[in-house]
Amino acid sequence: MDMSIDQLVVMSQAWIPVLLQYSGKLTLAIFTLLIGWWLISKLTAKVSALMDGRKVDRALSSFIGSLASIVLKVLLIISVASMIGVETTSFIAVIGAAGLAIGLALQGSLANFAGGVLIMLFRPFKAGDFIEAQGVSGSVDYIQIFHTVLRTGDNKVVIVPNGTLSNGIITNHSRQNTRQVLYDVKLDYDADLAKAREVLLELSKDARVHQEPAPVVVVSSLGETSINLSLRMWTAAGDYWPVIFMLNESVRDRLRAEGVELAQPPRMMQVVQQGKAG
C-alpha cells in the first residue's frame, strides 16, 4: 500500500530533528577525519625523510613509516567514531586482546624485529664488515628486519637471528682501518735474543706493515721451557691475515739461517721393563 502524504509528513517530522541533531556531529567527524588523514600523511613523510637524512636503512625507514601510519589512522578512526556517538570501548578492548594474543604468539619474532631495529639504528656493523658473534664469524652479506646473513671464509651462509645478535657480544674486525699484529715466537733459553730481535724487525719492513708507529719486539713472558718474544706492528685491516701468513712462512727459516733456535716442546719418555720369564 502506498504511503499517504500525511504519513510522509509525520515521518519527516520525526526524522528532521534527528538529522539536525546529528548533522553537526557528522560534519565535524568528517572534517576531523579528512584533516587528521592529511596530517598523518605529512607526519609519516617527515619521519621517513628524517630517517633517510640520518642514513637509516631504507627497509627499516619504510617499515616504521608504514607501521606508524597504520597505527595513527586506526586511532583516528576510533576517535572519529566516538565523536558521532559510536561506543568504542568494546572495540578498543577487542583490539587490545588481539594485540596481546598476537604478541604472545610472535614473541620470538618480535624480539628479532626489535633487535633488527636496534642494529639498523645504531649500526654496530654494516654490510661487508667481518664480524664474530654468537660463536660464528664471517662477512655480513645483508641485514634484514628479522635476521642477519653472514658468509663464512669457506663460503657457507649463516643466518643469525637479530634478537640474539643484538643482545650478545659482537666483535667487528672491519670497523677500524688498521689492526695491530701481535706475533709471538718461542725461543730456546740459549738463543741469541739480539739476533732474534734483528731478524723479526727485518721481517717487519714488509711494504704492508706501517712504519709509524714503528714495529717493536718485546720479551712478552718467560716460560718454563722458552723465552717468548712478541713482534708488534700495525697494518691495514685488509692486510692483517696476509701479513700473518707471511710471518708463518718466513720466521722459522730466517731464524734458523741466523743460528737462532726455536724452543722445542718438552717430550716425556717412558721406559717399560719387561720381566724375565720364569
Automatic annotation (TrEMBL):
Residues 183-262 form the Mechanosensitive ion channel MscS C-terminal domain. PANTHER family: SMALL-CONDUCTANCE MECHANOSENSITIVE CHANNEL. Its main location: membrane. The keyword Cytoplasm does not apply. It holds the Pfam family MS_channel_2nd. InterPro entries: LSM_dom_sf, MS_channel_1st, MS_channel_C, MscS_archaea/bacteria_type, MscS_beta-dom_sf, MscS_channel_2nd, MscS_channel_C_sf, MscS_channel_CS. Residues 109-175 form the Mechanosensitive ion channel MscS domain. It is a multi-pass membrane protein. Keywords: Cell inner membrane, Cell membrane, Ion channel, Ion transport, Membrane, Transmembrane, Transmembrane helix, Transport. Belongs to the MscS (TC 1.A.23) family. The chain crosses the membrane at residues 20-40, 60-85, 91-122. This is Small-conductance mechanosensitive channel. One of its GO terms (cellular component) is plasma membrane.
